[in-house]
TrEMBL record:
Protein name: Carbon monoxide dehydrogenase, FAD binding, medium chain
Domain FAD-binding PCMH-type intervals: 1-177
PANTHER family listed in its UniProt record: XANTHINE DEHYDROGENASE SUBUNIT C-RELATED
Family matches, as Pfam families: CO_deh_flav_C, FAD_binding_5
Record key words, sorted: FAD, Flavoprotein, Oxidoreductase
Gene3D superfamilies per UniProt: 3.30.465.10, CO dehydrogenase flavoprotein, C-terminal domain, Uridine Diphospho-n-acetylenolpyruvylglucosamine Reductase, domain 2
Source organism superkingdom: Bacteria
Listed EC numbers: 1.2.99.2
Example of a GO MF term: FAD binding
InterPro entries: CO_DH_flav_C, CO_DH_flav_C_dom_sf, Diverse_Substr_Oxidored, FAD-bd_PCMH, FAD-bd_PCMH-like_sf, FAD-bd_PCMH_sub1, FAD-bd_PCMH_sub2, Mopterin_DH_FAD-bd
Encoding gene per record: coxM
Organism lineage string: Bacteria, Bacillati, Actinomycetota, Actinomycetes, Geodermatophilales
């Protein structure tokens, strides 16, 4: 439960972070809120030689409307995403999923950039983002690029973000008053999702039904063909590959995906 020794660097700008990554190489790790990285360091599943703390980059913490999108700085804490009036009004699903992460202590530390980069298949915010669409903006030695959320999470704790890139922003389409739903099944209120389903604008994303958060494409296609919510939700687990663990076996997860998708779509339709 004690991490291996490491050096610590606190940076004040993204350029300083990139310079530190270039200097220390792939054995360095960026530190956001530390609520995922430090636990895995204590388990020695990650043994970085240097931690590059992004917490001093004050201009990475913001929420602003930018045309048809809401732009959220990667350093913004999930508590702020939950409470921010712009997010509540323009992207209420995102505010809600941020508010379903862990407990208040966790949400006060965890950052948007951290939850996106960590790529846990059970994580709430990436599930909401995958249903909403939009992009993850990263900055690397060659400048900035936008990764569509559909291409961001590539595997179990794997992303399209390179080791020498920093997540700087998440951009989400404004959904305004469009109906949405989020259903998260847990054993206890503050737990991680055993399975979760997010629905908005005919799109559905699922947590913990594969190595990454995934879209329920068969459900989406059925809805586009005019199927009822009940019929479409019955297809939610098609193409997924849930695992079995002490919380639920794969068949039960498939059942949950269908049930939670139906409930999320019903909530979206009722708005
Ligand atoms: C008790 C507890 C309960 C939790 N419950 C939930 C839950 O119910 N649902 C849920 O979704 N999450 C939950 N979490 C996870 C929490 O939301 C994570 O801490 C968060 O998702 C990761 O954000 P972070 O800022 O802490 O990232 P960190 O732990 O600092 O970093 C995570 C990873 O992202 C990288 N990283 C960080 N910032 C950047 C950046 N800007 N650019 C590129 N890479 C970066 C790091 O190098 C590291 O690999 C829980 C955590 C704890 C401790």
């Amino acid at each position: 439960m004690i991490p291996s020794t490491f050096d610590y660097v606190k940076v004040r700008s993204v350029d300083e972070a990139l310079a530190a990554l270039a200097e220390h190489g792939e054995d360095a790790k960026l530190l956001g809120g530390g609520h995922s990285l430090l636990p895995i360091m204590k388990l020695r599943l990650a043994i970085p030689t240097v931690l590059i703390d992004l917490g001093g980059i004050t201009d990475l913490s913001y929420v602003r409307v930018d045309g048809d999108e809401v732009a959220i700085g990667a350093g913004t804490r999930l508590f702020e995403v939950e409470r921010d009036e712009v997010v509540r009004t323009e992207v209420p699903l995102l505010s809600h999923v941020a508010g379903r992460v862990g407990d208040p202590q966790v949400r006060h530390r965890a950052t948007v950039g951290g939850t996106v980069a960590h790529s846990d298949p059970a994580s709430d915010v990436p599930t909401g983002l995958l249903a909403l669409g939009g992009s993850v903006v990263v900055q690397g030695p060659g400048g900035r690029r936008a990764i569509p959320v559909t291409a961001c999470w590539t595997g179990f704790f794997e992303t399209d973000i390179a080791w020498d890139e920093v997540v700087v922003e998440v951009r989400v389409p404004r959904t305004g008053s469009a109906g949405w739903g989020y259903e998260k099944f847990t054993r206890r209120e503050n737990d991680w999702a055993i399975v979760a389903a997010a629905a908005v604008d005919g799109r559905v994303a699922l947590a913990n039904m594969a190595g990454t958060v995934v879209r329920a494409t068969a459900t989406e296609e059925a809805l586009a063909r005019g199927a009822s919510i009940a019929e479409a939700a019955e297809l939610a687990d098609q193409g997924t590959s849930p695992g079995s663990d002490m919380h639920a076996d794969a068949d039960y997860r498939r059942h949950l995906a269908r049930l939670l998708t139906r409930r999320a779509l019903e909530s979206a339709a009722a708005a």
